[in-house]
Design brief:
3 copies of one chain form a homotrimer. By secondary structure, chain A is mostly helical. Helix content of chain A is about 80%, strand content about 0%. Chain A is globular. At the B-C interface, helix 2 and helix 4 of B face helix 2, helix 6 and helix 7 of C.
Chain lengths: ~200, ~200, ~200
Amino acid sequence: MLLTLDLLGIFVFAVAGGLVAVRKELDLVGVLALAAVTALGGGLMRDVLIGDVPPPGLEDWRYLSVPLGAGLLVFFFHPALGRLERLIRQIDAGGLGLFAVAGALKASDYDLGPMPAAILGVVTAVGGGVLRDVLVRDVPAILRRGELYAIPALAGAGVAVVGAEAGLADAVVAGPAAAVTIIWRLLTIHRGWTAPMPRTRD
Amino acid sequence: MLLTLDLLGIFVFAVAGGLVAVRKELDLVGVLALAAVTALGGGLMRDVLIGDVPPPGLEDWRYLSVPLGAGLLVFFFHPALGRLERLIRQIDAGGLGLFAVAGALKASDYDLGPMPAAILGVVTAVGGGVLRDVLVRDVPAILRRGELYAIPALAGAGVAVVGAEAGLADAVVAGPAAAVTIIWRLLTIHRGWTAPMPRTRD
Amino acid sequence: MLLTLDLLGIFVFAVAGGLVAVRKELDLVGVLALAAVTALGGGLMRDVLIGDVPPPGLEDWRYLSVPLGAGLLVFFFHPALGRLERLIRQIDAGGLGLFAVAGALKASDYDLGPMPAAILGVVTAVGGGVLRDVLVRDVPAILRRGELYAIPALAGAGVAVVGAEAGLADAVVAGPAAAVTIIWRLLTIHRGWTAPMPRTRD
C-alpha cells in the first residue's frame, strides 16, 4: 500500500518533469533524464545526506523503472498529457505530501533531531524539482514564484516529526501529517495563496 | 595499463572542460575548476552514490594532478589546443567509452543490479560534463542537442553489466563493451546521427 | 571560542546569501534557502565527500538555526543590511579564512593527503557561494570575476595542511593559516587585485 502510494508519487513527479523537458525542446535523453531527476532527485539528496547508500532509489529497480516508463509515456503522448496539466498539478500535491512526510520520518529514523528531519522532509519533496529547474536553467520555482509550495511541505513534515518524537507509530502519524500538506497545497492552488515577499526597497 | 587509460580519459575530459572555460571568459580559477569538475565530477557522483568515500578521485593525488595539469596547459596554450578541437572530440569518444564501462563495472562490484549499474556507468561518463555546463549556465549538451552521446554510453555500460552478470571477468568484458560505445560515438560524429526528439505539438 | 567563530562565519555567509536572494526578487522561502545554502553548502559538500554523514551541519541545531535566523533578519531588515554591504564584504573575508582552514584540517583528520585536503578546504569555503550562484542562475562569481577569492583560500588551506603534516597541533596552525587567507583577501578588496585571465585569442 505504502509502496503503491510512493510509486504513484514518483510517477506524477516524473510526468511533470518530462513535460518540462518537452516544453524546453530537449531530446529523448533529456525527457528521460528530467523525469528521473525530478522524481528521484530529492530522495537521493536525502539518502546521501543521511548516509543510506547505495540509496534504495537506485537499488530497487521499481524506483528506476517507474520514472523511465513515465518519461517514455511523456515522450510519445505529451500532447495528451499536456492537456491534463491541471489534473497533474493537483495529483502533484499528493506527491508533495507523501514525499515530505516519508522523507521526514526516514530522517527521524536515522537519529536526526526534529528540525533537521523536517528540513530533510522538505528536501525530499522539493529537491528533485530544484535539480530539474537548475538543469533547464530556470531559477527554481519554489524559491521564486511566491506560490506556497515548500511551506505546506514543511508543515506536514513538521507534524510528522513532532508525532514521531511523541512516540506515535509512523503508520499513525503519516496520514494526518500528509493531509496537512496536501490540503494546504490544494487550497493554495484553488485560492492563489502566495508566500511573503521581501518589502521592496523604498 | 588500465590506470594509464583512465588518466588519459581524465586528461581529455579536462582539456575539453578547460576550453569551455576559456570560451566563457573565465579566469585562472575558472579554467582549473572546470577542467577538474569535467574530468572528475562524474566519478565523484558515482562514488558518493555507491558509498565509496572518500572517493579515489580525491584520495589519489594522480587523479587530481592530471586535470589540474591539463587546466594549466589549456590556460597557457589554449589557442593551439583550440585548433585541435576536432581531434579532442574524437579522443573524447575514448574517454566516454572508458568511463561508462569502468563506472558500470565498479557499480556492479558494489552489488547494484544491472539496470542501476548501467545507469551509474552513464552518470560516470556524462556527469562531469553536466556539472560543467550547469556551472557556465548552459543547458547540459547531452539533454539538448540531439546528438547521440548518452545513448552510446548506455549501450557500452549495458554490455559491460550483462557480461559481469554472466560471470565474465571484468578484464574480458571491458574491452568489447568500451568498443561498442566508442565505435557508435565515432560513427555519430562522422555521420551526424541524432537522438529522437519529441513530436512538436500539432 | 572556535564554535563562536564558526557560527559567526556561518552568520556572515548567510547574510550575504540572503541579500542576493532579495536582489533577485525571491520570496521568503528563497531568502531562507539561499541563506542556508550559502552558509552550509560548502561544509555539506566536504562532509559528503569525506563520508562524515549525517553531517554536523544538519545534526547540530545551532548550525541550522543561525542561517535561518540570519535569513529572517535579511527578510525583514534588508534595506539596512544592504547599506552595510561593504562591511559585510570585509567580515566575509574572515569567514573565508575560517572555513578554508577548518575544512582543510577536518579533511586532513579523515586521512586525506595534503593536496586533496587543501582543495577540500577551498570547497568548504567557496562551495556554498557556488551553489547559491547556480540556484539564481549566475555563473559562479569565483570562476569568473577575476577577483582573488579562491586563491587566498587555497593559500590558507595549504599552510594549514602543511602545518598539520609537519605534526603541529591544529590549534597552533589554524590561526596563522587563517591569517594568510584573511589578510590576502582584505588586501585584494582594498587594492583591487585580480586573478590571471587567459590570453585572448590573437
